[in-house]
Amino acid sequence: MTKIFEKAPIPNRWLVVAGSLLMQLSLGAIYTWSLFNQPLVETFGWSAGDTVFTFSLTLAFFSLAVIVAGRIQDKTGPRIVAIAGGILTGLGVSMASFATNIYFLYLSYGVIAGIGIGAAYVTPLATCSKWFPEKRGLITGLILAALGLGGMLFKPVILFFIENYGVSKAFLYLGLIYGSLIVAGAMALVVPPRGYQPPGWHPPAPETGKTVNREIPPLQAMATPQFYMLVVWMFFGVSAGLMIISVAASIGTEMVGLSLGAAGNAVVTISLFNAFGRLGWGWISDRLGRKFSMLGIFILLSAAMFYMALIPMNYAGFLMATCAVGFSFGGLAAMLPTITAEWFGLKHVGNNYGAIFIFYGLAALTAPRLAIAIGFEKALLVAGFACLGCIITAVFAKAPE
């Protein structure tokens, strides 16, 4: 049955991209959780901290599921894994409509939907990388840009359901929408035949004395310093980005003195530049190299952290800094899976990137709480110095021998 599923003919590799974009737009809607916080507090009387923890659980189980799903898709192919992810995502979000206590919300939206999102998320990245070896950075950026835009696309839909039907019914309808769209997009996912090369393209010749045909399984990858370099980039880069993304409005009100409405505009600009960064850095890296791009991302991210921590900001400066964070965060999302595939090979990319992606979940659980616990200025300084460390490691970055 699995073999039949995966050998369905695909007339054009761009159909794989179209299905991947549909999936990612739907998965990106998960980052709109902040829209549910206040309605849940008002409806059920839960504390804001309790409701926000739902999103932390979602990200944590999301990152865990990426590891398992990556391993499974390497063996069975992407389509079945993506369909299962779509079903779980839709089921978890829909089940949240029946939550009358916070723990059922944690189970449904946090655990079940989080697992579904992680399973569905990893499949388009690995599949499209195999179809587009000549423009892998650009295609990865395009796929991930859709994830960044998903929240903006679904924001008015979510608000419409909440305002007209209440927050519980909104979960039900949104779960049905998310699940249906993800499953529909998953039907287009199929791996190319072994040895596939796009018409007119040939792999670059290896450098003298070196080979570019790396197929390194996870245990061997973990024995290389390059694996831990990717882990450092993932954890500290994502921590710096999520530290701003999760509390951008609070930084605007407390550090800049803006009204909540004005500070909230940073949420929109971060989303836009997050999408631009996923696409833009993919395009840049295809032309100027992955190493140049990683250096640029961390230089920009470090500069934004130090600027916000040390220099008094006005409204324009605040928006510029948050846009730089969004652009850098999007670039990390595009670069890390691309570099993983190029350093360790495509055969095990699901497993290898899944092992690295677990540190996204750890960053999501750590960074927002750190920002609140030690204060925004100190947290920004810590993040800035961490990004400086990432710049140093990027200077010495090179593929495994």
From TrEMBL:
InterPro entries: MFS, MFS_dom, MFS_trans_sf, Proton-linked_MCT. SUPFAM superfamilies: MFS general substrate transporter (SSF103473). It comes from the Bacteria. Keywords: Membrane, Transmembrane, Transmembrane helix. One of its GO terms (molecular function) is transmembrane transporter activity. Gene3D superfamilies: MFS general substrate transporter like domains. The chain crosses the membrane at residues 52-69, 81-100, 106-126, 138-158, 170-191, 227-251, 257-280, 292-310, 316-341, 353-374, 380-397. Residues 12-401 form the Major facilitator superfamily (MFS) profile domain. This is OFA family oxalate/formate antiporter-like MFS transporter. It comes from Desulfobotulus alkaliphilus.
